Amino acid sequence: MPYQTVKGTYDLLPDQMIRFNMLEDLFRQFLNLYGYGEIKTPVFEYTGVFQKENDTSDMVTKEMYTFSPNGKDSLTLRPEGTAGVIRSFVENKMYGNSEMPLKLGYIEEMFRHERPQKGRQRQFTQMGIECIGDKDPLIDAEVIALGYFYIKTLGIQSVKVLINTLGDQESRLRYKQSLIDYFEPLKDELCTDCQNRLYKNPLRILDCKIDHEKDIIAKAPKMELTESSSKYFEDVKHYLDVLEIPYEVDDRLVRGLDYYTDTVFEVVSTNEVSGSQATIFGGGRYDDLVKEMGGPQISGIGFAIGVERLMILCEAEEIFDYSKSIDCYVINLNEDKDYALSVAEELRNNSFSCEMDYYRRSLKAQFKSSERKNARFVIIIGEDEVKENTVTLKDTLTKAQESVKKDELCERLDQLMEDYYV
Ligand code: HAM
Q1: Distance, CA 281 to ligand 1 centroid (Å)?
Q2: Which residue, of 145, 175, 221, 223, has the fewest CB within 10 Å?
Q3: Which residues of the chain have pLDDT under 50?
Q4: How far apart are the CA of 283 and the centre of ligand 1, in A?
Q5: Looking at residue 54, what is its pLDDT?
Q6: What pTM does this model have?
Q7: Burial class (CB in 10 A: 0-12, 13-18, 19+), 193
Q8: Domain 326-421 is classified in which CATH homologous superfamily?
Q9: How far is the CA of 306 from the centre of ligand 1 (A)?
Q10: Which residue, judged by its Cα, is nearest atom 33 of ligand 1?
Q11: Per CATH, which fold does 14-168+225-316 belong to?
């Protein structure tokens, strides 16, 4: 094959697009339900938007598509949505908004140079939210609720919610030190990445894909929370209970990105079809990111759902009960196509989806096409219909056939559809 998609990228063909759009449409409804406005940021940003000093995440250190078209500016295809949204929040001074928190949602393509496998691409789509400006356990619970109830509304059963807290700054600083004290003498047993993470961000060692099964990770000390941090987490859990969202506390959940503070969470698939890429969505709170990006010291929280991973799960759980159909198929038996063309266009102008025969094939062949396209109504136009300014209308559900005046066709279709659904 002379031309192929780049490794880790893929085409979405029309049938898949229908499913993809269905997932996105429902997500947009959820954005609306919870008061989120949609935002679109550029596909590429200055590299500094994503890369912060001392960043230890794989995403930033190994997986970014970074380029310099003029040899001066370093640009990067966005690997995730949060940093771009916060850049926009600060650049557009959205913190001046009197209604806080500000709620922003997005559906966008992301790019990471990862090893491709099922559920892990180099170009993928995230549907995400960022709720910026206030910090309250109620907001954390509401953010988790939006994602959880979205997944449940789709009808997916096999997921579980994992939550944890990374504590406030004081708890985290204390914990970092106790992890350094613990891992320092065991440094040689860690992978090279974790050796690098030891002093920069030892929490990330707990999340290491290579070391995670080692005994030294299992035996690492647990975080001791300050009183206020512990109360905050208890309150988040309380609100999740009020919302009847089942969850498990996973004290090893630290997430793969560096900016998280306090509440972190993931919704993971328990369906074996998801394999090793089971995290359908993940997110958490970030107290310092807005400040780091030049804004005021205000906190935010959000998550992102991986649409491709969600698709795999939806297919496995047979969520998509969809067969493509159209309202009308126009069969034309005349040499002159003008009459059929004007009927088809009139139908479309009245919001009936419609296809027609272009080639004046045999009646049988045109009927076959109407069946393949799953047309609800077939509209037959022969010589008599043109002479009498009528059409023959066949309802494929009731099998009834009738002659209808051309200019009364749309009204009749409305009536038949209405009668059928009462
Ligand atoms: P993340 O955990 O890196 O978080 O990605 C979120 C989701 O994107 C994952 O749970 C997964 O479903 C999907 N995903 C990530 N990488 C890939 C890939 N290579 N192929 C397919 N799907 C993938 C973030 O990106 C944060 N920005 C989420 C967030 C928003 N935190 C706060 N606000």
Answers
A1: 6
A2: 221
A3: none
A4: 8
A5: 78
A6: 0.90
A7: middle
A8: Anticodon-binding domain (3.40.50.800)
A9: 6
A10: 302
A11: BirA Bifunctional Protein; domain 2 (3.30.930)
